[in-house]
Specification:
The chain is built from 8 helices and 2 strands; from the N terminus they run H-H-H-E-H-H-H-H-E-H. It is an all-alpha fold. The protein has a two-stranded parallel sheet. The termini are far apart.
Length: 147
């Protein structure tokens, strides 16, 4: 109960502080609207506002390259990853298969620093076992002899 009254008091105080600022801003725009601004100034202001984006918004709009599967990628594809040399690519291929991408570091294929550079660029897909699929797709039928 005490908290809610404090919140109400702070909210009211914030409104009282904002009202004069909003009134002053409204008067400033009314004065500036009476004198028309040059069209070039309006265009540059609109362009500047349109091109300025927050970095987080830019990051969400940029397209990332698809992750490289460490279990099936060729040596050339692995060498395109940051910090991966010819020797490291060969070590990754020799250590296959990987259950998770973290096994690159756990199996001492890559150092922690090297793994830190590539972990956001790789995945470790698992191949589906053909036996598991065939068992799931065939329905179990009971014969009269089996109980």
């Amino acid at each position: 109960m005490i908290r809610s009254s404090r919140i109400h008091t702070l909210s009211a105080l914030a409104v009282l502080v904002m009202l004069p600022l909003a009134a002053h801003a409204a008067q400033g725009t009314a004065k500036s609207s009476s004198t028309p601004a040059p069209k070039a100034a309006v265009a540059t202001t609109a362009t500047a506002t349109a091109t300025h984006h927050h970095p987080a918004r830019l990051a969400s709009k940029t397209k990332r390259a698809p992750a490289t599967d460490i279990n099936s990628a060729s040596k050339e594809d692995l060498m395109k990853l940051p910090g991966i040399t010819d020797e490291l690519a060969q070590k990754i291929i020799d250590g296959r298969p990987y259950k998770t991408k973290a096994q690159l570091s756990k199996k001492n294929v890559l150092t922690k620093a090297e793994y830190g550079k590539v972990r956001s660029h790789v995945i470790a897909k698992q191949e589906a076992k053909p036996e598991a699929k065939s068992m799931e797709s065939t329905p179990e039928t009971k014969t009269p002899d089996s109980k």
